[in-house]
Amino acid sequence: MPRATALATISDYYDAFNAGDTAAMEALLTDDFEHHVNEGQIRKGVEKFREFNAHMTRCYRENLTDIVVMANDAGTRAAAEFVVNGVYLQTDAGLPEARGQSYILPAGTFFTLRDGRIQRVTTYYNLADWIAQVG
User: Transmembrane segments in this chain: where (predicted)?
Assistant: First the structure.
């Protein structure tokens, strides 16, 4: 059942994301969690991820659709492809001014899992595409 466990964990993660329940997302993480950000620094630890989620909640309202989750047989690696449907709420430092712009952005995430929990999240999207949509 490791593959099934990984698929369920990642599905729970995205269900929590779409519900705006960042605490439920954080509860799925290991103590040595790492968040590899698109074109950014690696954030280590659940507390850094909690800070990231608070920042994202202030600046963006996002809902993910067309989510497809895949996992290896061992349940130690997973990936997801999805579409981000968002609204840019508050200006994020170094990015264009927020004026409530909507955006639709394809994205993907890679995961490392251990004992049914998420140890690493690495998300990729096209930042230039996002800037063009909100700029």
Answer: none
Token readout for 67 is 């989510």
Concatenating the DSSP letter of every residue in 23-80 gives HHHHTTEEEEEEEE-TTSPEEESHHHHHHHHHHHHHHEEEEEEEEEEEE-TTSSEEEE
What is the tally of structural domains in the chain?
1
**pLDDT (0 to 100) of residue 40:** 83
- Rounded to two decimals, what is the model's pTM? 0.95
Domain of 16, CATH number, reads: 3.10.450.50
Q: How far is it, in rounded angstroms, from Cα 6 to Cα 3?
A: 5
